[in-house]
Structure to design on (143 residues):
């Protein structure tokens, strides 16, 4: 049976809040994975820009003794060249984790707020943490 207007609004607010939390958890996981995987590129480009005379030209000892303008330029180019495969690797890692832990299936549809007695999506499939249970490998997150 349909919920009352106030109850429907309260449940909608709860579902929106839960979906926003799931979205930010996914975003945090994506940020952590990209930061870890792209760390070599970040370091190489940082040192290249820091030691180049036309950009920052740091007075650090390693800039004076090891890196001149041509080696700084080579570091910058190397950093941007290795960025593309690392982005692909980071996205593959995130997608495999999202699929393995069913992260995209944690979003709840708004129809749960309209009718009474409708079970939660994760409840119907055996609980919120399904790590210990067998998973259906045919289930797609985008279906």
């Amino acid at each position: 049976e349909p919920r009352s207007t106030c109850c429907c609004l309260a449940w909608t607010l709860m579902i929106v809040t839960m979906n926003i939390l799931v979205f930010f958890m996914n975003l945090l996981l994506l940020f952590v994975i990209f930061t870890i995987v792209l760390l070599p590129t970040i370091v190489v480009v940082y040192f290249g820009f820091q030691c180049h005379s036309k950009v920052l030209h740091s007075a650090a000892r390693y800039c004076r003794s090891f890196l001149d303008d041509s080696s700084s330029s080579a570091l910058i180019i190397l950093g941007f060249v290795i960025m593309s495969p690392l982005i692909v690797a980071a996205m593959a890692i995130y997608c495999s984790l999202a699929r393995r832990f069913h992260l995209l299936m944690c979003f709840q549809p708004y129809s749960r707020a309209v009718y009474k007695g409708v079970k939660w999506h994760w409840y119907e499939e055996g609980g919120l943490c399904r790590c210990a249970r067998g998973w259906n490998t045919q289930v797609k997150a985008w279906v």
